[in-house]
């Protein structure tokens, strides 16, 4: 397995209305997403969708 600098790190806060996804990508790039916690027409699970994106 790669060193910590070569891995993705995620923090997810799933609330009643929104799910926040924080991703630290290899190389230090940071990405933050806010998704609806429930949006069955577009995805089955907000945390999984946030990681996918």
Summarize the structure in words:
This protein has 53 residues and is mainly β. The radius of gyration is 12 Å and the shape is elongated. It contains 1 helix and 3 strands, in the order βββα. 13% of the residues lie in helices and 38% in strands. The model has no long low-confidence stretch (mean pLDDT 94). Strand 1 and strand 2 form a beta hairpin. The protein has one domain (9-52). It has a 3-stranded antiparallel β-sheet with strand order 1-2-3, covered by helices on one side. It comes from Mus musculus (Mouse).
Write the SSE topology.
Blueprint: E1 9-14, E2 18-24, E3 30-36, H1 46-52
Antiparallel strand pairs: 1-2, 2-3
Domain Hydantoinase/oxoprolinase N-terminal: 10-53
Protein name: 5-oxoprolinase (ATP-hydrolysing)
GO molecular function: hydrolase activity
């Amino acid at each position: 397995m790669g060193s910590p600098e070569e891995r993705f790190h995620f923090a997810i806060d799933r609330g009643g209305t929104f799910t926040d996804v924080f991703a630290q990508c290899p190389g230090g790039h940071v990405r933050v997403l806010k998704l609806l916690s429930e949006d069955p027409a577009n995805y089955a699970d907000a945390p999984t969708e946030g990681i996918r994106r």
